[in-house]
Amino acid sequence: MDFRHLGRSGLIVSRVAYGNWLTRSSSRSEETELACVRAALDAGITTFDTADVYADGLAEESLGRALKGERREGLEILTKVFAPTGPGRNDLGLSRKHIRESIDNSLRRLDTDHVDVYQAHRFDPSTPLEETMEAFADVVHAGKAHYIGVSEWTADQLRRGHALARELRISLISSQPQYSALWRVPEGEIMPACEELGVGQIVWSPLAQGVLTGKYLPGRQWPQESRARDSNDGSPVLAPWLKDDVLARVQQLRPVADGLGLTIAQLSLAWVLQHPNVASAVIGASRPEQIADNAKAAGIRLEADVMAAIDAALGPVVSRDPGATRDSSPTAPDWRLA
After folding, report:
1. pLDDT single digits (tens) 258-269
2. What CATH number corresponds to the domain at position 154?
């Protein structure tokens, strides 16, 4: 496993991180989660990403149990706050109330006294940014998190949040956008802003929900036990990629990968990790052997001709519109009251 500093911070993360959004979904057992975490540790992965909303809190609980007995100082544990965690009007968003209550609940479920990075899962337009950042500062100054991060914030939101974090003497060090060879949206505005601010990327869906493994073939039925067949396993996020033109283009990566002795998944992960602003890519799995295979992408350096071949194969079906980041978060100030 290779490692890299997260942005310009002192925190070092594994180039491949383990995320349990899908692994600990309603259709996966805790035994699978335990096996996947063990496979991640065996592969040298030290960075683990989760969120309070995943599987209604069960993801944090399972991860906490799976990591029990590991040396806490040798791990980087990241979780998130924003999405609804209860039926109340204040059980969501980035208010002081929700952040202060959510961090304590996450720490209890994770069975730890701190997380390494506490992340805003989305931007909350209904709460003053000053209130949100002051609440995050309270969390850091109380020793419940070392750093803070964000997910799917726009470049402007990042700049405003980063400036407030500096005033409050806390470190906003990470951004977690969706990023893959098919979804290059962050390259337009997010990554340049982060490079300017010293913020690193820990990207999610680097394999486009499994499409960049090459297992989905155009004009064919989806494989048994794949996410495309499981309505509880992220299929709504996967659906936009399951188009014949996209799948046909992904198959054009096969000879490129074969020529390097790689799988399409390893090639696609190596492509993501090639970007200088990407510190780590979060992978999930339904089987532990997938983690061992994908972790091998860390440390692979792709030559310019290989990068050009990937661009040529995928070019017409790549998403690049920076506006897609804005579309992924609530925009109306009264969204919580809807």
Report:
1. 999 999 999 999
2. 3.20.20.100
Of 54, 118, 147, 216, the active-site residue reads 54
Residues 185/159, Cβ–Cβ less than 8 Å: no
Three-class secondary structure of residue 12 per DSSP: strand
Quick count: other Cβ atoms within 10 Å of Cβ 44?
A: 14
| Cβ neighbours for 304, distance < 8 A, ≥ 6 positions apart | none
Round to whole Å and give the CA distance between 260 and 1.
19
Name the amino acid, one letter, at 48.
F
22 within some domain: yes
The label of the residue with tokens 């925190």 reads 11
Q: What is the pLDDT of residues 270-307, one digit of tens each?
A: 999 999 999 999 998 888 888 999 999 998 999 999 99
For the stretch 130-188, pLDDT in tens is 999 999 999 999 999 999 999 999 999 999 999 999 999 999 999 999 999 999 999 99
pLDDT of 31: 83
Is the pTM here over 0.85, yes or no?
Answer: yes
Whether 66 is covered by a domain: the verdict is: yes
Decide if 85 is inside a domain.
yes
Active site residue 18: no
- The total of structural domains in the chain comes to 1
